[in-house]
Amino acid sequence: MDHRYTGYLDITGQWDTLILAVTTDAYTTVLKQIDREVLQHVRSILLISPTFGSGHLVHHYIKQFNPATEVISFSTYHGDTRWAHQQPSCTVLTTAVKKKIYAGSVQGKSPRLIYLQEMYHRLGVQLQMMDSPLEAETRNISLYVHPPLFMNDIALQAIFGEDSIPRYVYKLYPEGPITQELIRSMLTQWQEITSILKKLDISGINLLKFMIDDNYPVRSESLKRQDIDNFDQLDTIHQQYLLYIRYASLLIDPFSEPDRQGRYFDFSAVPFRQVFINQEGELDIPRMPQEDYYRIKMIQGIARHTSTPCPMIDEFIRRYEYTIREYAQNHSEQSLSSAFTVQNFHEDLNRICSTIQPVH
Q1: Active-site amino acid positions
Q2: If the chain, 360 residues long, is cut into consecutive pieces of 10 residues, what is the mean pLDDT of each piece?
Q3: Which domain holds residue 23?
Q4: Residue 191: how many CB atoms within 10 A of its CB?
């Protein structure tokens, strides 16, 4: 590292590439703080962890200063990284690296994207090039599983309630939120997103295959390859059954070594984080589901733009917005962050939708 700036406003000089490793909902907030003269010389912008539409959003913003800037979206961050000592510092710990990620450029299979593919290959990560940033952004498992996992009554009570007994994101009820109804809602949302993608002439994903082959595998004794590969051709009840098996099979790490008592690593013991006091002294909402609220509002807005019904997505948003309104009313005497405000994100959605044209 040659230099560290204390704020975006302080950035100076000419930079070939701008790597935005910020939360999904912060792209325009960050770009607006960077001097225009800096942005006018940037040749490419890499979005490390975008959501559906982020590439269009950033490209629409940057082209007013520099129309030639190439915007590249990755499907997701390539690892699992956290603060080494649980607090912001100069030291982080990367606990895992993905075997495969996706990336798409506004300039198609450009020389820069090919270079990135070669670079990732040297690092042992397969980077699959997609036709566009939007298509790469659909290859993010959070789009498909976070809203049902975090925007249900059990999860919302765990995050915003005052119960001292922890609940866990990936556990079956009553230890966690996973129920027959949650699995049904996850499948329905995947179907709604698939309908949106068809309107945009983007190929959808086989949800179960993507979960297992691109994220966390399970043993063949739990799920047969034929069921995985043919998942998107099966009837709805069969699909729900297979999704439930997938989550049940990952309650423990099926590839870990058991201890002497026959216990495997408790893979699903990821606790819901509760509302907390941020650095400004305000009550704030954890990144999940705060960032997921932005994600799903983008999907909802694109669904409206493409005239695609999405009642399940609408229901997730209704539940979340009702919860934050109620929490804000019950804690009106306390200082609350802006995350407790119902938002429409009109500016971002207008930028995204102005560059997206449904094909039919």
Answers
A1: 146
A2: 91 96 95 96 97 98 95 94 84 89 97 97 96 97 98 98 94 98 98 98 97 95 98 98 98 96 95 95 96 98 98 98 98 97 97 89
A3: 8-137
A4: 16
